[in-house]
Specification:
Elements lengths: L9 E5 L4 H12 L3 E6 L10 E4 L5 H15 L4 E4 L14 H11 L1 H14 L6 E5 L12 H21 L5 E7 L5 H8 L4 H10 L9 H12 L10 E4 L12
Parallel strand pairs: 1-2, 1-4, 2-3, 4-5, 5-6, 6-7
Bound molecules: nicotinamide-adenine-dinucleotide.
Keywords: Oxidoreductase
Pfam family, one: adh_short_C2
InterPro entries: NAD(P)-bd_dom_sf, Sc_DH/Rdtase_CS, SDR_DHRS6-like, SDR_fam
Length: 251
């Protein structure tokens, strides 16, 4: 295969109704895949993608959504573990219930969805898992201890799962996005005292001088999920405008 092609392949994308997940689902679809988006708010997922209401923090919901998607699509070749929630704060700022809530979604959500999809991946001829991690897993970002811990776990799980699943021919990788222009960032800016000021500060932190686009992250996920990346497993790909690699920090 010489191009980014998914003809005959099927994909499940969690958090596929918005931002990075939606852009990924749309790109995979445009390149020939049949895609199911599992999301807490799936109503805006356009056809021909199929959609289901799934809460990755709920085991039964994940199991039901994955079974439904696999039956409808006729199996699962690609899993994109993308659903996630944010959290701001230093080590003293987040009470235990916030830690539990974020780890339930960002870490256990990946665990549950992967467990539910694995039996289908084991029957696939081109199985791949791509996790949406974050630059927070690799760079010491200020005011992000809980979120960084959750994404650090996703990065470590990516490598450990890749080691376990290599014998089954299942590749496991992750992308580490930087600051991506999605509704997530809009919500963050909406909570700021001065959103215009905060947006300018965000941009100033970017070595490239602009935010990353959801399509740029989707392209990286699609590449890692594709047979083009057949020799790549147990590793991460930064799509962060240079935030981590250039070792630049907010002034
Ligand atoms: P987004 O808010 O636009 O989309 C997230 C989607 O996940 C939403 O559709 C939401 O309904 C869904 N979701 C949230 N909790 C869920 C749950 N419990 N079960 C099922 N679905 C759930 O955000 P985004 O920016 O596209 O973020 C997607 C992923 O990218 C997240 O894992 C996030 O941590 C990661 N990320 C985002 C950025 C960024 O700057 N936007 C940077 C690094 C990493």
């Amino acid at each position: 295969m010489s191009d980014l092609e998914f003809d005959g392949l099927t994909a499940v994308v969690t958090g596929g109704a918005s931002g990075i997940g939606l852009a990924t689902a749309q790109l995979l679809t445009a390149r020939g895949a049949r895609v199911a988006c599992l999301d807490l708010n799936p109503q805006d997922v356009p056809e021909p993608m199929v959609r289901a209401h799934v809460d990755v923090a709920d085991e039964e919901s994940v199991r039901a959504g994955v079974t439904w998607a696999a039956e409808l699509l006729g199996g699962v070749d690609i899993l994109v573990n993308n659903a996630g929630i944010g959290a701001q704060g230093g080590i003293e700022d987040n009470p235990d219930h916030e830690w539990r809530q974020v780890l339930e979604v960002n870490v256990l959500g990946v665990v549950r969805t992967t467990r539910a999809v694995l039996p289908y991946l084991r029957r696939s001829a081109a199985p791949a898992i791509v996790n949406t991690c974050s630059v927070a897993a690799t760079a010491g970002l200020p005011d992000r201890v809980l979120y960084s811990a959750s994404k650090g776990a996703v990065l470590a799980m990516t490598r450990a799962m890749a080691a376990d699943l290599v014998a089954d021919g299942i590749r496991v990788t992750c992308v580490n996005p930087g600051t991506v222009a999605t509704p997530w960032v809009d919500r963050l800016l909406g909570r700021a005292d001065d959103p215009a000021d905060e947006r300018a500060a965000l941009r100033a932190r970017q070595p490239l001088g602009r935010l990353v686009t959801p399509d740029e992250v989707a392209a990286a996920i699609a590449y890692l999920a594709s047979p083009l990346a057949g020799a790549t497993t147990g590793t991460d790909l930064a799509v962060d405008g240079g935030m981590d690699g250039l070792r630049l920090r907010p002034p």
